[in-house]
From TrEMBL, chain A:
SUPFAM superfamilies: P-loop containing nucleoside triphosphate hydrolases. Belongs to the RecA family. RAD51 subfamily. Residues 85-264 form the RecA family profile domain. This is (wild Malaysian banana) hypothetical protein. It is found in: Nucleus. GO terms for biological process: DNA strand invasion; double-strand break repair via homologous recombination; reciprocal meiotic recombination; telomere maintenance. One of its GO terms (molecular function) is ATP-dependent DNA damage sensor activity. GO terms for cellular component: microtubule organizing center; Rad51B-Rad51C-Rad51D-XRCC2 complex; replication fork. Its main location: nucleus. The lineage of its organism: Eukaryota, Viridiplantae, Streptophyta, Embryophyta, Tracheophyta. Involved in the homologous recombination repair (HRR) pathway of double-stranded DNA breaks arising during DNA replication or induced by DNA-damaging agents. The keyword Phosphoprotein does not apply. Residues 17-41 are annotated as: Disordered.
TrEMBL record, chain B:
The keyword Nucleotide-binding applies. This is DNA repair protein RAD51 homolog 3. Belongs to the RecA family. RAD51 subfamily. Transmembrane segments: none annotated. It is found in: Nucleus. The keyword ATP-binding applies. It comes from Musa acuminata subsp. malaccensis. Coiled coil: none annotated.
Length: 321, 287
């Protein structure tokens, strides 16, 4: 009975995450500033020092439990992670960058919503170009509507490198274009497969390689989800949310930014609202709404949802020809 | 799929992903890709050379503006031999309204051939086989025609096209005239219609990419009540407007027909006038 009480007490302490126990306070290991918060130390050590022979089994169980759950982080570790690992990637469209306070943030899922021909694909192409050029990382463009235009990207690159000589221009073009990978998908299952492959690859790759993926673009995710959403069963919604969660997980764990595009459908009273419904609204971290007046080069962008900035703020940017 | 087997399957591809291509490779491929001429120089100019392969282009306009004429013209122009600067491919014409007229197609084929013989005679001299190929009847023989009478037939045909394209490797254009006809009246459940159309457009996108062909969808217009007035917009709603890569709108400007690029990832918005004559689409003549 006495022993059972002691084991129960140990278990309780394990679950609490190591509240200091009598003499354990002195033996607590100080925590160094973490480079990667996943390696943060749980307060395991104070307890294991105290365990006697009978509790070796408890130690093994605690290892198994801790291995299965993601590590608990405190505010300081999260702040360190945000400072060191989650950079801001400029999109190249000045209006959007100013509105977002820098650009797309790594670790976040950003959604661009807009009616047809409002500039969503142009923003995606600009961002791909900007990231490939400045940050020396790889951009992965998942294209569902055959709108990835290498010719357009080349045109944008060349219009930016007016000051270079011919060899410099070609070298720059080749460098940038070789860092942008494009894959066409026409099925939600293909998308999930590609994301799982990507996750697998990122888990096994060497951390310090120069060809790290920095930006993942899915243009457009709504055309994959619309054919399965709705109807009598809710599997479509399940797949949509699974995809959203997987995208956010990849963004957070591997420190890349995810950009998706969505279209608009008719709402009440003839106004437009974003497609994919209410369940999708909570999934992206940042939602931007684009619109463009007929025949003009100027796009209006407004914030529908953001983790830090107030929604409703607007800006304009120009799509250059 | 287990993690190890997935990891092993990654090794066959480029860096990050199996099946991905770099933009640099795609650029070189794109520069070698020929376009399908519409027959009208100005229209070709705003389209960047003609209708692009590997893309889905939607053409919309009021009845009588010339959408079917454009469809037939493209089905003929895709067959221009490679020696004369064309693609030398075959065409699939899916007709849902019954507006395809064989006599008109014959007329257009004759016009196209006579233009070729006039303009590129110097190239044709080197190719003795050409006179047999350049007959209107052989042009007609290379257009595969499907007549659709209901939306189920339309869905079935598009599902069947995959097998057809595997067998007929030369097909370079699919024209669907019109994509909207059977979906406008019979559908009670609009949500189901959106899903079905979404699935159909994804399939067509896949064909365009996989078999490197052009897909041209002809669409009708409808009136929409927006902010107190009626506007003409393309049929099938907002979701369908995202289903194409490029969109061209044909409209009347006084007595003249004009074409306007409404949506494109790589072309700037521009307008071009065109004429429909006895032979082919032509540039407007300055009077």
């Amino acid at each position: 009975m006495e022993e059972r009480g002691r084991v129960a007490g140990e278990l309780e302490r394990l679950i609490d995450g190591g509240t200091p126990h009598k003499s354990a306070v002195a033996s607590q290991v100080p925590m160094p500033p973490p480079r990667n918060p996943r390696s943060a130390i749980h307060a395991k050590s104070p307890i294991t020092k105290e365990l006697g022979e009978e509790d070796v089994g408890m130690e093994e169980v605690s290892v198994v439990i801790d291995g299965r759950q993601p590590s608990w982080l405190n505010g300081v570790e999260l702040l360190e992670d945000a400072k060191w690992n989650k950079h801001v990637l400029p999109t190249g469209c000045k209006g959007i960058d100013i509105l977002l306070g820098g650009g797309l943030r790594e670790g976040q899922l950003t959604e661009i919503v807009g009616p047809s021909s409002s500039g969503k694909t142009q923003v995606c192409l600009h961002s791909a170009l900007g990231v490939a050029d400045v940050h020396l990382g790889v951009v992965l463009f998942l294209d569902t509507c055959n709108s990835f235009s290498p010719h357009r990207i080349a045109h944008m690159v060349n219009s930016q490198s007016d000051t270079l000589v011919k060899e410099g221009k070609e070298g720059r073009l080749k460098r940038i274009m070789s860092s942008i990978l494009c894959h066409s998908l026409f099925d939600i299952f293909e998308l999930l497969d590609v994301l799982h492959q990507l996750e697998c690859k990122l888990k096994h790759q060497v951390k310090s390689s120069g060809n790290r993926i920095r930006l993942l673009i899915v243009d457009s995710i709504s055309s994959l989800i619309t054919p399965i959403l709705g109807g009598k069963n809710s599997q479509g919604r399940l797949m949509m949310i699974t995809t959203g969660i997987l995208l956010k997980k990849i963004a957070n764990e591997y420190n890349l930014s995810v950009l998706v595009t969505n279209h608009m459908v008719g709402g009440e009273g003839g106004s437009l609202k974003p497609a994919l419904g209410e369940s999708w609204k909570n999934i992206p971290h940042v939602r931007l709404s684009l619109s463009r007046d007929q025949g003009s080069n100027v796009c209006n962008v407004s914030i529908l949802k953001h983790t830090i900035i107030a929604s409703g703020r607007t800006a304009k940017f120009v799509i250059d020809n | 799929m287990s993690e190890t087997s997935r990891f092993r399957s990654l090794e066959g591809g480029h860096g990050a992903l199996k099946g991905a291509q770099t933009a640099w490779d795609m650029l070189s491929e794109e520069q070698m890709q020929k376009h399908i001429t519409t027959g009208c120089e100005e229209l070709d100019a705003i389209l960047g050379g003609g209708i692009h392969c590997k893309e889905v282009t939607e053409v919309g306009g009021v009845p009588g503006i010339g959408k079917t004429q454009l469809g037939i013209q493209l089905a003929v122009n895709v067959q221009i031999p490679v020696e004369c600067g064309g693609l030398g491919g075959k065409a699939i014409y899916i007709d849902t309204e019954g507006s395809f007229m064989v006599e008109r197609a014959h007329q257009i084929a004759e016009g196209c051939i006579s233009d070729l013989l006039d303009n590129t005679a110097h190239r044709l001299k080197d190719f003795p086989a050409c006179p047999e190929i350049l007959q209107p009847n052989s042009f007609l023989a290379n257009i595969f025609y499907f007549r659709i009478c209901s939306y189920t037939e339309q869905i079935a045909t598009i599902n069947y096209l995959e097998k057809f394209l595997e067998e007929q490797k030369d097909v370079k254009i699919i024209v669907v005239d019109s994509i909207t006809f059977h979906f406008r009246q019979d559908f009670d459940d609009l949500a189901l219609r959106t899903r079905v159309l979404g699935g159909m457009s994804l399939k067509l996108m896949r064909f365009a990419k996989k078999y490197s062909l052009a897909v041209v969808l002809l669409n009708q217009v409808t009136t929409k009540f927006v902010e107190g007035s009626f506007h003409l917009t393309l049929a099938l709603g907002d979701t369908w407007s995202h289903a194409c890569t490029n969109r061209i709108i044909l409209y009347w400007n006084g007595n003249d027909r004009h074409a306007y690029i409404d949506k494109s990832p790589s072309l700037r918005s521009a307008t071009a006038p065109f004429l429909i004559t006895g032979k082919v689409y032509e540039v407007t003549r300055v009077i």
